[in-house]
Specification:
This protein is of the alpha/beta class. The strands form five sheets. It has an eight-stranded antiparallel beta sheet, with helices on one face. The longest helix has 20 residues. It is globular.
Length: 608
């Protein structure tokens, strides 16, 4: 995702910034830029594209200055473009800002500034900060930064230059990581230790609502109360400078643990719960188009198909639009009845999935409108569809998808709420879900705390050969996805079923040798789920139940319980899938399987 690098030193800053951006590229980005301060003037270079193409042009221009800031951007507010790339300037060109995270009240602040005559040059929330800091600055950068903190809501990390503060970089942190790297004759700011490689040997972690003033001679840190902070730096170890797995033994485990931050960036930038609005500017469907939609077909493969099952539930229930999730490889074979009133939504991690691409071609040829829910905006499918929702999950290295799955669920829920809003049902839906949506990243983080419970369960699954996963309502999709993760990673035969189907055949398999995993968190279907669990237990089948914290009834009927935080049934699938991801990981690891590269699988399937 987005990355920050900044330096205040005594040697040319541009090569350091370019190298830092290159080291941050693994996080994923769609545009990049730098700003340098030289003799009281700021010079900005930025554009969409890759560092490998952009940096040589910047270096060729011989930009001067020993102080500068750089950024890699993954678009949230506004599409990738030169105006939307960071850094952003204030109206007078005296302040330059780069920003990670989300400013949650940017629309209200933008409207306030526009009413005061400010003209914006971009669609981003970051530009708001540039104008706020410029207006707050009266010679004291700490006071100006604290005023910005007082006005802004959200999680963010900022690196700021002011033309009237030569040789100084201002760092501000709330929620989003920002580090201070100490080198020889230079101080750096970075969002990731990797960007400090080769420049700093000691590092300070900036605290919550702290402000750092970095110069070549050192750094001054001020806390939220305005008091100067004395903090001893720690040594920057070689392991911290290794991007790879970020200290985790496998990419998959790293990506599972990235889910809270990725979901925060997805949801916070697009939901204004206080105003009861969802904003999806990229979708390119106005209210009239949503009202004219007669049906939605979600076409996808594998994990994306299971996310689409959830999406179809949400679109039909919340927005009132008949919706169906269809396997992309079978779309043409069924001869779908299509016209301009039908919306075909392609859901894909890579945007290159051959079967999904073929389904989009069918939709276009037969006159349907198209939309993408993708993790790679500039992809084959991204260029084919009429609009898209960017998942914002960031690069995923492990073949078995985890953070992209929860990103798809979040994106599809936003799409359903946007459609509901357009069709006059949004107020009701957002009144129910609005207050709960901001809590999702924290709930997912708490669900990661089930890891020890999951490890204990995994120890009882040594030698298991067959598993059955059961869920109801939106969590039927969770059952399918949990089973897929188990079979992908551990090569254990696992099948997902809507729980109501169990008595229509699968119950014949129940025995001491078959392990059943049941999702029974609060919702309209919980009692029926527990009845299914009792039916399995009565036949001596071991059952693992995913239940709400403190659910004693579930504990009485289950062999093993994994407790997750309770939430709204529409949000629960984002939480409930986390222990199932961890369970598949733990079982695979105990069986000696290659977690990140399961046999016979590829990350992107580009053949039909």
């Amino acid at each position: 995702m987005c990355g920050i690098i900044a330096i205040a030193g005594t040697t040319p800053a541009l090569p350091v910034l370019a190298q830092g951006l290159h080291l941050l590229a693994y996080r994923g980005y769609d545009s990049a830029g730098v700003a340098l301060e030289h003799q009281g003037r700021l010079h900005v270079e930025k554009d969409k594209g890759r560092i490998a193409d952009l940096a040589p042009a910047w270096l060729a221009r011989g930009l001067e200055g020993c102080t500068g800031i750089g950024h890699t951007r993954w678009a949230t507010h506004g599409p990738p473009s030169k105006p939307n790339a960071h850094p952003h300037l204030d109206a007078r060109g005296e302040v330059a800002v780069v920003h990670n995270g989300i400013l949650e009240n940017d629309l209200a602040l933008r409207e306030e500034l526009e009413a005061q005559g400010v003209r914006f040059a971009s669609e981003t929330d970051t530009e708001v900060v540039a104008h706020l800091f410029a207006r707050a600055f009266r010679g004291d950068p700490v006071a100006a930064a604290r005023e910005v903190l007082a006005r802004c809501k959200g999680h963010f990390a900022l690196a700021i230059l002011h033309a009237r503060l030569p040789g100084t970089v201002i760092g501000v942190r709330r929620g989003s990581p920002l580090l201070v790297g100490l080198g020889v004759g230079e101080v750096l700011l970075a969002s990731d230790t990797k960007a400090l490689a080769g420049r700093a040997d000691r590092v300070l972690d900036l605290g919550e609502d702290e402000v750092a003033l970095a110069t070549a001679g050192g750094v001054r840190i001020v806390d939220a109360a305005g008091q100067e902070v004395r903090r001893a730096p720690r040594a920057l170890g070689e392991r911290e400078q290794d991007t790879g797995k970020g200290g985790f033994p496998h990419f998959m485990l790293k990506e599972i643990h990235e889910q809270p931050d990725r979901l925060y960036e997805l949801l916070a930038g697009r939901v204004e719960a206080s105003r009861g609005r969802v904003r999806l500017h990229e979708v390119a469907l106005d209210d009239a188009a949503w009202r004219a939609t007669s049906r939605i077909d979600l076409v996808a493969s594998g994990t994306a198909h299971y996310a689409s099952l959830y999406g179809a539930y949400a679109l039909e229930s919340l927005a009132g639009i008949p919706s169906r999730a269809l396997v992309a490889a079978e779309y043409e074979a069924r001869g779908p009845v299509l016209d301009p009133s039908v919306l075909v939504v392609a859901v894909s991690q890579s945007g290159e999935t051959a079967d999904t691409k073929a389904a989009v071609e069918v939709a276009r040829a037969r006159g349907a409108r198209t939309l993408g829910v993708l993790n790679v905006r500039d992809s084959v499918i991204g260029r084919m569809v009429g609009g898209l929702v960017d998942i914002h999950a960031g690069p995923e290295t492990s073949v078995a998808s985890t953070k992209v799955y929860t990103g798809m669920l979040g994106a599809l829920l936003l799409l359903a709420l946007r459609a509901a809003q357009a069709r006059g049902r949004g107020e009701e839906a957002l009144r129910t879900l609005g207050p709960a949506l901001p809590s999702v990243p924290g709930l997912v983080r708490r669900a990661l705390g089930t890891w020890e419970q999951v490890r204990a369960v995994a120890r009882h699954l040594d030698g298991v050969r067959d598993m059955l996963y059961l869920g109801r309502g939106p969590d039927a999709a969770t059952a399918f996805e949990g089973a897929l993760k188990m079979k992908e990673l551990s090569y254990v035969h696992a099948e997902g079923y809507p729980a109501g189907e169990m008595k229509h055949g699968p119950i014949a398999l129940v025995s001491r040798e078959l392990v059943t995993v049941a999702i029974a968190t609060p919702g309209p279907w919980r009692e029926r789920m527990l009845a299914n669990v009792r039916e399995v237990s009565a036949r001596e089948g071991p059952v693992v139940v995913v239940a709400a914290e403190g659910d004693r009834e579930a504990a009485r009927v289950a062999t093993h319980v994994v407790e997750v935080p309770a939430t709204d049934p529409w949000l629960a699938p984002l939480v409930n899938v986390v222990p199932l991801q961890l369970l598949a990981y733990e079982v695979a690891k105990r069986r000696g399987c290659d977690v990140d590269q399961p046999r016979n699988l590829a990350k992107t399937v580009t053949v039909q």
